[in-house]
What we know:
This protein is α+β, with helices and mostly antiparallel strands. The protein has helices at about 5-10, 30-35, 60-65, 75-85, 165-170, 185-190, 200-210, 285-290, 295-300, 335-345, 365-375, 375-380, 435; strands at about 15-20, 40-45, 55, 90, 100-105, 125, 130-135, 140-145, 145-150, 155, 175-180, 215, 225, 230-245, 245, 255, 255-270, 275, 305-310, 320-325, 350-355, 380-385, 405-410.
Amino acid sequence: MYLRAFLDMLEEEGHLHRVKKRVSHNYEVANVMNSLRERPTIFEDVEGFQFPVFGGITSNRDLIAKSMGTKKEMLLPKLVEALREPSECETVSEAPCQEVVIKGDEVDLDKLPLLHHLPGDGGRYGTATVAVIKDPDTGRNASYHRIMQVGKDRCTARLIPKRQTRTTYDDIEGDLEMAICVGNSVPVMVAASLGPPSDVDELEIANTLDETPLVRCLTKDLEVPAHSEFVLEGRLIRDVDREGPFVDLTETRDIERQEPVFVVDCITHRKDAMWQMLLPGRMEHKNLMGMPKEPTIYDKVSEVANCKNVLITLGGGSWLHGIVQIEKRGAEDGKKAIEAAFKGHGSMKHVVIVDEDVDIYDHKKVEWAIATRFQGDKDLVVLPNQPGSSLDPSGDHTGKKTKTTKVGVDATIPQDVDPVKYKKETYEEVDVDDYLR
């Protein structure tokens, strides 16, 4: 579903809030959004800017599922299908995202409502920023890169090592063309988070989730979602500048770094464009980081065991902890699933494997499985000195790549035992009204 149609649906159903009071882009928008618990919201009057600001459309799984015409229980199979069977996007000649064109000396990022989110931020940030590039060998790639404004026409872009944009930037000489798309449909937002193999096009994944037409940029050899609110066409140049500090997924402050400068050569947008924001470290950020890793874990575990479900947990910052549910058929399936899960999400630090009868969405039931089905001397997998996540403040950050110890917990029922003693007994439900009359 296109973004505008989704917002209209949410408003008709009473799920979209409008803040008509004038608000400041300096912390106030972020604080109000946080206090609203990230419910879908449009800030109609942001002081000093002509553009409204909106956010909250991916703040829970029900909203994400609704945008794709499904239920949250069916999100994982839908994402797995799209990851396995991306479909070619239609390219159109005219698009809403190019109704207004600003080029050259007229480009002025000061006119866009990039936000100060929290005291201590390095600057004004764009966060709901889907970046599109082309790699000479693997083709088009869409991913998220936060941008911090450092000038009228330039930002610094956080490029994470080993990710496609950074790899392409390091492998080529000269500038790397990049388009930053802001104000996208939920399918585009989710697809850009997935991190499939480098030769798989995320925008084609979005097109499988729901129709996603593209349009060619006006100044760059790139295609972008035609229904975006804004497109910043530009170049990653060889100059670097400071980026950060900034709060990241684990709700801790990421450090200041030297990152490539993104020069904006052209801005296109809708006539009535709205700027999209994501609160750093809160639910939209967590959902878009963690949930799209579930299908990649599912695919890897499915290669070695009968995988039933996957969850990246909120308690692990929606990044570092996972739970994998399998139908256990062999004695080593649990340990095989642990190894595969870490391949499916390289930044994951701890993973728990459970049986089909354990509800992975209920942390008490997962803890119960660990308490009753796990023995540390037999079922614990410890992998020291592994590549880890820069978001983990306890990791070893002294080298070029963060190192960590990864731990897998096989909380499945052992093989060749009487499974009855591992089953939770339940009482029969009765109609209590029959007894309280």
